[in-house]
Structure formats: C-alpha cells, structure tokens
C-alpha cells in the first residue's frame, strides 16, 4: 500500500472507495487491522507523547481524515488522493456489513447516545447484525470484561468512539486479544448517528 509519511506516520494514499475495498478484503481474509482516521490534532498530540506516536506508527492503516492532513501531504510533495472521513468509511462499511452478513460491535459515547445510534443504524440497515454495543465511559478496571464480551461476540467490525486520546491506545493495547479484522476509532461518530 502506498503511503505518505507525515512526521513519520505512514498515511495511506487510497481514496475512500479504495479504502472501503481494502477493509472489505481485510474482513474476508480475517486479518486484524487497527484503523486510525488521523487529523492534525491527533498528530500534534502524538508529537508530544512518544507512546501515542508509537500507537499511530503501529496501526495497520492510517487514513487521512482531516483537511489539514491532506494539506500536509501535499506540502511534503506526496499528495493523497482525497480526504477520507472516518464517519463516511464507517457508513459504507455498515452497508457492506449488511449485505455480507458481517457482525458489528460498537463501543463508545454515553449510554443513551450509543443506544440511539444503534436504533438508527438498525432503521437504516434492517438486516445489519449488531452483535453487541456499550457506552464508552469505563475505566481500566472494566477493560477485561469489555474485551471478553467483544471476543465472545466475535465481530468482523469493531467501532470504538471514545475520545481520540483514549480510543487509539485502547485498541492498540487489546488488538492482539480482540483480533477483530477491522478495529476502527470513530471519535464522535456515534453522536452524529444518534441524530
Ligand atoms: N467519549 C467516551 N468516553 C470517554 C470520553 C469520550 O465514550 O471517556 C465519547 C464521547 O461521548 C463522544 C466521543 O467519545 O461520543 C468523542 O468525544 P469528544 O468529542 O469529547 O472527544 P475528542 O474527539 O474531542 O477527543
């Protein structure tokens, strides 16, 4: 996969359609991918926190979400094709999931927000298999139970919508155990889905 390095973080040069196709293959091949949709705020945070930078560099796929990332790639003379918003990639993956019978698990946002987001997803995608969901307000003490519940549900797609500073290190820490083909940080996307 072609990438452009922005402060050493390899950002994929695929457009949105190619990104969805790539992740569709990841699901079919059952190969775990931590997908980061990166924006300039996340890059700034990573520059200040080496542990966070390491997470960005270890992710299997980093996609250019923010307009600033698209600008930076052009600035270093290695442009990406287009901005690839994470929320749109999630939306398209949900449609593919419905068609192909993939299992989906959602973690993040406040309890009433994630419940409303699930309701709306089920209205838009009646055959979508949402095999589990929970809010994003839990601490390390609960990680074990959350990880076990996800493992038991065996999803193909796992969307984690907590703050960027939380969701990416969390996915990184547990990705081997979770071993879900697509594990993607989606920030505030559940708030948007909840209506
Ligand atoms: N969120 C969460 N758990 C937390 C903090 C935030 O689930 O511990 C959710 C929050 O409800 C929202 C999303 O993460 O749905 C993004 O939150 P916010 O905009 O505060 O984070 P930022 O993107 O600014 O880091």
From TrEMBL:
It is an enzyme of class 2 (transferase). Its EC number is 2.4.1.187. Keywords: Cell wall biogenesis/degradation, Glycosyltransferase, Teichoic acid biosynthesis, Transferase. It catalyses: UDP-N-acetyl-alpha-D-mannosamine + N-acetyl-alpha-D-glucosaminyl-di-trans,octa-cis-undecaprenyl diphosphate = N-acetyl-beta-D-mannosaminyl-(1->4)-N-acetyl-alpha-D-glucosaminyl di-trans,octa-cis-undecaprenyl diphosphate + UDP + H(+). Pathway: Cell wall biogenesis; teichoic acid biosynthesis. Catalyzes the conversion of GlcNAc-PP-undecaprenol into ManNAc-GlcNAc-PP-undecaprenol, the first committed lipid intermediate in the de novo synthesis of teichoic acid. Belongs to the glycosyltransferase 26 family. TagA/TarA subfamily. This is N-acetylglucosaminyldiphosphoundecaprenol N-acetyl-beta-D-mannosaminyltransferase. It comes from Paenibacillus thermoaerophilus. The chain holds residues 1 to 195 of 245 of the full protein.
